[in-house]
Write a structure and sequence with these properties.
Elements (H helix, E strand, L loop, with lengths): L16 H12 L15 H12 L13 H15 L15 H12 L5 E6 L4 H8 L3 E6 L1 E3 L2 E3 L2 H7 L4 E7 L11 H13 L3 E5 L25 E4 L2 H5 L8
Parallel strand pairs: 1-2, 1-5, 5-6, 6-7
Antiparallel strand pairs: 3-4
Length: 247
């Protein structure tokens, strides 16, 4: 057989660095700083709620495809109460088995072969594989260190946009640098997206893990962005149950 077994779009990718580092940490008994594990399990009341749900027969069989209605409503309520963003839980909220699935599904749904996808570098490694699987071309824009943190060069972002650019894949608070994009930076990105008719996928899984007074502001809240933004959050990251993929 001359054709390789693996999809050619994945030929440049090896084992994920997370799998490698987690295996090394396990084999050596080291503290694992290579993956987004919380320090402790999440609140006891959440664990007990899950146990009660299983015993009460809730969630043991197939849920509705978009997610259980109560969870979708809770997600919509969260966006409303935290960010004054109003979404219809029946038509605008989708539950996936983890945020990585949401990233993959969004890219596969929105990107076609030949489309360019801008991603802030360094980035969560699944971005590159998901863009490749969708047939897109990854265009990195590098966050550069300055004054003790990493910063986005808006001119570099602007110059990276071409006629083939389909969307921007944005991570804020940023994984892995921790950068939280400011209101002015997000406003400039929103203006660019509207001017160039771009879609944006925002990875906001660390939205509730900000420090030193940094404020997380969803890009969807800026003028013109609500209907061109896919916002991705993570209950696993927020509540420190990263092994749970439910809903």
């Amino acid at each position: 057989m001359t054709r390789p077994l693996l999809n050619r779009r994945l030929a440049e990718f090896g084992t994920t660095i997370f799998a490698e580092m987690s295996a090394l940490a396990l084999s050596t008994g080291s503290i694992n700083l290579g993956q987004g594990f919380p320090d402790t399990d999440g609140p006891e009341e959440i664990r007990e709620a899950a146990v009660r749900a299983l015993r009460d027969g809730r969630g043991n069989q197939y849920p509705p495809g978009p997610g259980v209605p109560e969870l979708r409503t809770a997600i919509a309520d969260h966006q409303q109460s935290r960010y004054a963003l109003t979404f219809d839980p029946d038509t605008e909220v989708l539950v996936t088995a983890g945020a990585t699935e949401a990233i993959a599904a969004s890219l596969l749904a929105l990107v076609e072969p030949g489309d360019e996808v801008i991603a802030l570098e360094p980035y969560y490694d699944s971005y590159a594989a998901c863009i490749a699987m969708a047939g897109g071309t990854r265009v990195p824009v590098t966050l550069r260190p300055r004054d003790g943190s990493y910063h986005l060069d808006l001119d570099e972002l602007r110059d990276a946009i071409t006629d083939r650019t389909r969307l921007i894949l944005l991570s804020t608070p940023h994984n892995p640098t921790g950068t939280v994009l400011t209101r002015d930076e997000l406003s400039a990105i929103a203006t660019l997206a509207v001017e160039r008719d771009l879609l944006v996928i925002t990875d906001e899984v660390y939205e509730h893990l900000t420090f030193d007074g940094a404020e997380h502001i969803p890009l969807a809240s800026f003028p013109g962005m609500r209907d061109r933004t896919v916002t991705i959050s993570s209950a696993g990251k927020t509540y420190s149950f990263t092994g749970w993929k439910v809903g």
